[in-house]
Records
---
Amino acid sequence: MRLFLVLTVFTLSGCEFYREASPEDISRAVYSSAEPASITLISMVKNRDDRSAHSALLINGSQQVLYDPAGTFQHPDLPRSGDIHYGVTPRFLDYYEKYHARFSHYVQSQTVEVDQATANRILANAQAKGKSPKMFCAVAVADVINSEDPFRGVNVTMFPEGLRRDFAEIPGVQDSFVYEYDEGQNRAWETETAAVN
């Protein structure tokens, strides 16, 4: 009974069982993209009503990271500290998108180019925020970006769909979509490992 209560408290508080990456792990994993500096809102959108159910942020500044507050994605080779996954190469981003895209949801990415200094300040905001409780993904994402141009019009909201709509109003935003038809969350890297072995 006591174990059940402890697990319930951890679940409700948004805590998850994962190993916090050391500074050395993070330093070894750093990935710098050749693409222009940018901020990308990643939305997991329900096919049923075309409304976003979860928000994350790809931050591409001096390094590329994934800020995934209250998210469930984990990869054994991707160091994580707080709500930030470090070393997000295109391969890991592909894994993240495939993990979320399925018969019930598609993934929409809304990319806005910024200067590197802006992207780095947003990363610093995300690092300072630490871990977010469950269901606070949209609040956390809005909070780390809306002190910076061109994101000052992004409202703090509990609803990922509101965040997606606000991003759509930012001049120059570029959209991309990922559709898959798996039954559940696709751990593509496990399938690839099994094929190699």
Note: Confidence is low (pLDDT under 50) at residues 3-16, 193-197.
---
Amino acid sequence: MTVKRMRILFMGTPDFALSILKRLCEDGEDVVGVVTQPDKPKGRGYKLTPPPVKVYAEERGIPVYQPERLKDGAFEETLRSLSPDMIVVAAYGKILPPYIINYPKYGCINAHASLLPKYRGASPIQRAVMNGERETGVTAMYMDEGLDTGDMILSERVAIEDDDTFETVHDKLAQAGAEAISRVVKTAKTGELPREKQNGNESTYAAKIERADRVIDFNESACAVHNKIRGLYPFPRAFTTTPCGATLQITSSRVADDAEGVPGEVVSVCKDGFTVKCSDGCVTVTGVIPEGKGKMSAADFVRGRKITVGDVLGAAPVNGNDE
């Protein structure tokens, strides 16, 4: 049976979700409401700032809901009043209770930023880049009560290039997610959606990025160090310590030729930065954020005599301000 219009409730919060919501609207779908996280204080003045999804929805005249909680049927009355045929979820940020997951006729569909069953969890994009993956993607899946364990519908694949960062891969995946959900909705209106069970034996978990994950270990290979730096840029950023114990966030790098030295030692300086010895090979650091300073080129950091050949990074305890 062909369905001309489907009532869609959208649940999402950040820019990744915004791309998908925009595509649904551009496709002319009937988005009956948007559920997003409450406004959060941001900046030095801690001004309450709405999520990107909310700003766009209000501009389009779409009703916006920002429930503090969903458990124990807190959103059930609103859900029934909206009566969605399908719920689309993208980086919403809260666990959905069964009464929401099981409500819509055509399913509660999630756009997850990985090729499931790999990289289930909170940080699939960052972990994929940090692990040196050459490919990732977005999987459209039926939600269940597990953590990204539901049956898969379809996927969109995205290449990870050598110079990609978390930011650039995120942007590519946001577009891939929009395409995936667009295909899902169109297919659902004309026929039955496919279902493919995930192979749990092939699953991996992308845990939330903690402070310890951000610390650069120069005892790892140059490729591993470089992947960590690009996988955590622009947020939350990898860091090390200078000989005086100050934290030094590293925003950009490249793999360099090997040189003599101990892991963490600055073995040379060049026109665009400085080169650090790793266990296998070297990395040239090209961008930094020194403790208490703004973002700058590594070359400017060198010219300011803040680092020199022979210095060893990472030897001091990690206890400074890394924000």
Note: The CA atoms of residues 151 and 197 lie 5 Å apart.
